[in-house]
Write a structure and sequence with these properties.
Layout lengths: L8 H7 L2 H6 L4 H13 L1 H21 L5 H25 L1
Helix pairs in contact: 3-4
Length: 93
């Protein structure tokens, strides 16, 4: 059994930039530094891979529309919540 990899303080700081890195929102210099670190650090390499998979899965799901019955139930529930809050305000005021 392998020992769990614990992120160093440097790795924890890099984790905060991984989303920016994946979105292409970093300078070229910063992107290259992160890429070098990801290649040399098993912990960050694994985190990068997992975040890429998570982002891809979220983007794929965002393209799918929920079934009509789910949307109808959600709309009914939202209307009920709004009506409850309106009634509560009326009772207070």
């Amino acid at each position: 059994m392998t020992r769990p990899v614990r992120p160093s303080p440097r790795c924890r700081a890099l984790f905060e930039e991984l989303s920016l890195y994946l979105d292409g929102d970093l300078t070229t210099d910063r992107r290259r530094k992160i890429e070098r670190h990801i290649r040399s650090c098993a912990c960050c390499g694994m985190m990068n891979q997992r975040l890429r998979l998570t982002v891809a899965a979220c983007r794929a799901e965002a393209k799918r529309r929920p079934p009509r019955d789910v949307m109808a139930r959600a709309a009914t529930r939202v209307r009920a919540l709004i009506a409850t809050r309106v009634a509560a305000r009326r009772d207070r005021g």
